[in-house]
Specification:
Blueprint lengths: L4 H5 L17 E4 L8 H11 L5 E5 L2 H5 L3 H17 L5 E5 L7 H17 L3 E5 L10 H10 L8 E5 L5 H5 L8 E3 L2 H16 L2
Parallel strand pairs: 1-2, 2-3, 3-4, 4-5, 5-6
Length: 202
């Protein structure tokens, strides 16, 4: 469950207690929506909320990615790794690369770079396709990520987000072995209703 930092700042807010087979994991986004916050700002957010969340969705600087400044992206990732390890964080990290703004080669290169760091830091658990702020994730975006992840990176998962509203949307990505889908609450309700109608043959 991804929540804004304003919720985490609300001392009176309590997450509802529900009976589930597994506890709900709480996360928040860093650098929404374009990742163009300074690295220092991102690190400050992670330090502030690192004891309250199970995971961070970190938007990498989209300007760097679209300009092919991958050396800057590398430094950004390394600073986040250093922060997590110096403060003995227990949270996981998903890196958001905003696929709708990138071409095939850019998606492949950044996915390959994240995979390189995942190998030594398995708490980097997912490549997330988009925030949903800049357009819809398309199947070819996910194919580009999957092509970058060789068999040795089976534990680095793909989270598809941005424009996922129907079962047809989800089915179009299933061939790429997607691990997680990011769905807004209104779309989630519609998906449940759509699946119920399908099961009941309505």
């Amino acid at each position: 469950l991804i929540v804004p930092t304003s919720i985490l700042d609300d001392s009176e807010f309590r997450f509802p207690q529900v009976r589930l087979q597994e506890p709900i994991k709480i996360g928040t986004v860093v650098g929404f929506p374009l990742g163009n916050n300074s690295v220092d700002e991102k690190i400050a957010t992670m330090k502030r909320y690192g004891q309250q969340v199970d995971e961070f969705d970190v938007v990498l600087n989209i300007g760097f990615l679209t300009s092919n400044f991958f050396d800057y992206t590398k430094k950004e990732i390394e600073c986040i790794i250093q922060t997590r390890e110096e403060h003995q964080g227990h949270y996981n990290v998903k890196f958001i690369i905003e696929c709708p703004l990138l071409d095939n080669d850019q998606i492949f290169q950044i996915s390959n770079l994240i995979a390189f760091y995942h190998k030594e830091h398995p708490w980097i658990t997912h490549i997330k396709t988009a925030t949903g702020f800049n357009g819809k994730t398309e199947p070819w975006h996910v194919k580009s990520i999957r092509n970058a992840l060789t068999d040795e990176f089976q534990d680095l998962h793909i989270k598809v987000s941005g424009g996922i509203r129907t079962l047809t949307d989800i089915e179009s990505f299933d061939i790429f072995n997607v691990g997680v889908y990011g769905v807004s609450y209104p779309s989630f309700v519609e998906l449940i209703q759509e699946e119920q109608k399908k099961l009941l043959h309505v």
